[in-house]
Specification:
Helices cover 78% and strands 0% of the residues. With 55 residues, the protein is mainly α.
Length: 55
């Protein structure tokens, strides 16, 4: 197993959570409401998959 793999997962999770947090914060700051928890979980998974392919 590649020793850098665990750092890639950490970095991907960190970047994904920052992107997701900024998007949610901007949405709330604009007066919107966040969707249901299941929708948020799905969006977070998509964001994590996208950032893992880019990193």
């Amino acid at each position: 197993m590649d020793p850098r793999a665990s750092f890639r997962l950490f970095r991907t999770g960190l970047i994904g959570s920052v992107v997701f947090g900024l998007a949610a914060g901007g949405h709330l700051a604009g007066g919107g409401q966040l969707p249901a928890l299941s929708v948020l979980a799905a969006l977070c998974a998509v964001c994590l998959l996208y950032t893992s392919r880019c990193v």
